[in-house]
């Protein structure tokens, strides 16, 4: 896998000095043969899902150079070449998806998405008998009771 690349740039300058106009033009040309494919990951990165949810991968897109737009992308899940991305969401884990494209010159590009499977969100449960506190919101009574005892 080639990790670095060189881009050749040429400058062309043309001077026109005939009367009555004077013009100068400059152009830059980038040699796409030395530019690897550019890969854009669609969706969130990292992608976060809850335990028990289903993960649907949104894939990636080659965005350039023009000659590479129709290349295929190979996908690797945790380093293994796969045709479909299936993430196990039955337990907490972190997975990686590598999207790899190689052009006709043998230049390779890789973009990586991290998928984090985290514990399911829990809502607070009501306190059980003998635990926590219960707040009574009924209005307080204003009546009072007096008891008297008479001796025989």
Topology:
Elements (H helix, E strand, L loop, with lengths): L8 E8 L6 E8 L7 E4 L5 E4 L9 E5 L9 E4 L2 E3 L10 E10 L5 E11 L34
Parallel strand pairs: 4-9
Antiparallel strand pairs: 1-2, 3-5, 6-7, 6-8, 8-9
Share of residues in helices: under 10%
| Oligomeric form | single chain
- The name of the CATH superfamily of the domain at 36-118 reads Immunoglobulins
Reported CATH architecture of the domain at 36-118: Sandwich
The helix tally amounts to 0
Shape: elongated
CATH class of the domain at 36-118: Mainly Beta
Order of helices and strands, N to C?
Answer: EEEEEEEEE
Molecular structure report:
The structure is a single chain. The protein is 0% helix and 38% strand. With 152 residues, it is mainly β. It has a domain at 36-118: Immunoglobulins (Immunoglobulin-like, Sandwich). It starts with 8 loop residues before the first strand and ends in a 34-residue tail after the last strand.
Give the tags.
152 residues, mainly beta, Immunoglobulin-like, five-stranded mixed sheet, two-stranded antiparallel ribbon, elongated
Brief summary of the model shown:
The protein has 152 residues and is mostly beta strands. It has strands at 9-16, 23-30, 38-41, 47-50, 60-64, 74-77, 80-82, 93-102, 108-118.
């Amino acid at each position: 896998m080639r990790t670095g690349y060189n881009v050749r740039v040429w400058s062309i300058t043309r001077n026109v000095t005939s009367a009555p106009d004077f013009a100068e033009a400059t152009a830059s040309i980038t040699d796409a043969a030395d530019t690897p494919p550019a890969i854009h990951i669609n969706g969130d990165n990292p992608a976060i899902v809850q335990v028990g949810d289903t993960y649907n991968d949104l894939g990636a897109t080659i965005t350039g150079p023009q000659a590479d737009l129709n290349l295929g992308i190979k996908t690797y899940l945790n380093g293994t070449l796969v045709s479909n991305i299936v993430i196990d969401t039955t337990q907490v884990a972190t997975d990686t998806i590598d999207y790899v494209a190689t052009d006709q010159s043998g230049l390779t590009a890789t973009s990586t998405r991290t998928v984090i499977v985290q514990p399911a969100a829990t809502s607070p449960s009501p306190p059980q008998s003998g635990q926590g506190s219960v707040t009574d919101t009924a209005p307080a009574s204003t009546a009072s009771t007096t008891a008297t005892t008479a001796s025989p």
